[in-house]
Amino acid sequence: MLPITDHLLDLLGLEKTAFRTYAVSALLLSLLFSFFRLLLQFVQICWAFYTTCRRLRCFRQPPRKNWLMGHLGMYLPNEKGLQDEKKVLDTMHDVLLVWAGPVLPLLVLVHPDYIKPVLSASAAIAPKDEFFYSFLKPWLGDGLLLSKGDKWSRHRRLLTPAFHFDILKPYMKIFNQCANIMHTKWRRHLGEKSVASFDMFEHISLMTLDSLQKCVFSYSSDCQEKMSDYISAIIELSGLVVRRQYRLHHYPNFIYYLSADGRRFRRACDIVHRFTTEVIQERRQALSQQGVEKWLQAKQGKTLDFIDVLLLAKDEDGKELSDEDIRAEADTFMFEGHDTTSSGLSWVLFNLAKYPEYQEKCREEIQEIMKGRELEDLEWDDLTQLPFTTMCIKESLRQFPPVTLVSRRCTEDIKLPDGRIIPKGIICMVNIYGTHHNPTVWPDSKDLGTALDRASPCRRCAWPWHSRCCASA
Ligand code: HEM
């Protein structure tokens, strides 16, 4: 810096004057000032870290891998990770402290009483945490799953009509139709190849994607029979997001997008976005040509799909959702709707295959409903007449929850029932899997068999665990 200052003073012809002393002193002072500012900031960060660590001392932690990695990579969402997690739960039953690397502490909540204060706090006090959802952002944008604050509240209100029974009821026809396509495929598969087993997950994923594409876009791609670019892009994106979680070196965006996976992710995102944007634009054009009244008249007796609901949605000020907002919500529903349900359904079938006696009971329950019917389709009202089947589905979701973790960042101190405090700024992991396997909440909850042998289901919620069902709430 000093030679540059000298050169500058030389150019200005001020080199040999008293001004040089002032200029050099001012420069040195400002350098010193900047240095102390940086030092102060560093001390403040260290102090805040030290204080947080002290405040976190009251939380127990399982042994770390090492000081650098902390607990990173120890409890991945695979079979081994989940089994290791169960072992930890034998000794720690409410809140665990884990370290993602040397300086990022996380509190893992594994008991409903400890989860409640975090999830019942307002969205401003415990917003969704960006760090763990950020891999989905380029695909899902600011849809409900990833948005926060005012945008989330506004969209949540605008989307409420999409969950009205009148909108959902007609979807039963679509679900029946898609399940029938899958069953026909299975029969053909078994007939042609005479094989006794095949991977059901793939078939169920296609069935859920087919249902969603029809419910969200009214679009029939026949994807259960022949793969479409759009559907294979969604399957690819879901796989890539999971794979990225396992590869720490792919966490920084600038490395990821240079890798082969990152390039495939970008390409697949483009395909998905192009499809959604085209549907929205075509539909908006038709809506503006016909006008809302005529449009709704034409829809009478037909199924109103998710895009229709979003296009017609208006807030209190009469403001509509933009095309980009609609795209984010539709892409979010396609992801959230297929990934969760295909995993959930696959585990239900796994459990029923493991316990043929319960499978038979479910079959009898359904056959009883179907007695004397011409069409072998389940109807909306039938769903409440299947207590045993519902109980099996709920118990299977408890054992194998499709979403194992959700995360929140506490922007204020949050008090736990035992008086301990979650310090402001900490990321909390609501461990759904851990909670569902917490021995203090579910004693003797080994598997579906032990659960179903226990009791008849609650009449209100069909939950097999009476002490934990809605009746005890
Ligand atoms: C067994 C099935 C399902 C399970 C286990 C499941 C699980 C979850 C969980 C745990 C969250 C909370 C995420 C968080 O707060 O961080 C969530 C949010 C969400 N799910 Fe699902 N889900 C299922 C089915 C579906 C379906 C079928 C759809 C749509 C078609 C859907 C759409 C959404 C959306 C839009 C959100 C964000 C809601 C918000 O933050 O306001 N989910 N889901």
What is the 3D shape? globular
Low-confidence stretches: none
Number of DSSP strand runs: 6
Return Rg in Å. 28 Å
Estimate the helix proportion, in percent: 55-70%
- Largest sheet report: 4 strands, mixed
CATH topology assignment of the domain at 133-348: Cytochrome p450
In spatial order, strands of the major sheet run 1-2-6-3
**What's the mean pLDDT score?**
88
Succession of helices and strands: HHHEEHHHHHHHHHHHHHHHEEEEHH
Chain-wise SSE layout:
Blueprint: H1 2-12, H2 19-56, H3 79-89, E1 95-99, E2 105-109, H4 112-119, H5 130-133, H6 137-140, H7 149-159, H8 165-168, H9 171-193, H10 200-217, H11 229-246, H12 253-256, H13 260-290, H14 292-299, H15 306-312, H16 323-354, H17 356-370, H18 387-399, E3 405-409, E4 414-415, E5 421-422, E6 427-431, H19 432-436, H20 448-454
Parallel strand pairs: 2-6
Antiparallel strand pairs: 1-2, 3-6, 4-5
Helix pairs in contact: 1-2, 9-10, 10-16, 11-13, 13-14, 13-16, 16-18
The chain binds protoporphyrin IX containing FE (HEM).
The site of protoporphyrin IX containing FE has 14 residues, from helix 16.
GO biological process, one term: ceramide biosynthetic process
Keywords: Endoplasmic reticulum, Heme, Iron, Membrane, Metal-binding, Microsome, Monooxygenase, Oxidoreductase, Transmembrane, Transmembrane helix
GO molecular function: heme binding; iron ion binding; monooxygenase activity; oxidoreductase activity, acting on paired donors, with incorporation or reduction of molecular oxygen
